[in-house]
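Blinded run. Sample ID left blank on purpose so nobody reads anything into the name before looking at the predicted structure. Input follows.
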Amino acid sequence: MEHTNILGDTITNDTFIRGIFGHIIGNERPIIVSLAGNPDNLNISEWIEQTGMASNSLVQSNQNSYVSLATFRPDNNGKYHQQKKQFAALFAVILNDVGGQVPLERIGLAPSWVIETAKNNFQIGFILASPIMDSALAERLLEAIVDAGLTTLENENPYLQLG
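Blinded prediction complete.
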């Protein structure tokens, strides 16, 4: 899928995801979840969880795709899961429902990206200058953002909020 930024440049999903993570060294990977259809009408078991950097085979233009903003290490069986015990690093944070439940005037920093998710309702993202590799610190940052009322919590598991 391609998107156009405010300058008129075309941005692919691959370019967007590589812009967040750069070139990851080692075995840590972001989690990419894709599904066909309306996510509100599907059971979580119907979601397809994949790992790796985005590519045409991982992010399909005909599916809804979501990427974690953190990377994760594989378990002992080489499988990746978006779980605290496999957390490697947090690369970015997002603010949801800005312009809707969260007043736009409350945002004081220039974002790395803005996505309009509904009319006058935005997801705003901030790429961190350096990834946070301490899971407790990443969790405290996410909790502070929620406690400050700068985002709505879409999931009760903070490690799912990492993406």
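Unblinding after everyone has recorded impressions. Confidence is low (pLDDT under 50) at residues 156-163.
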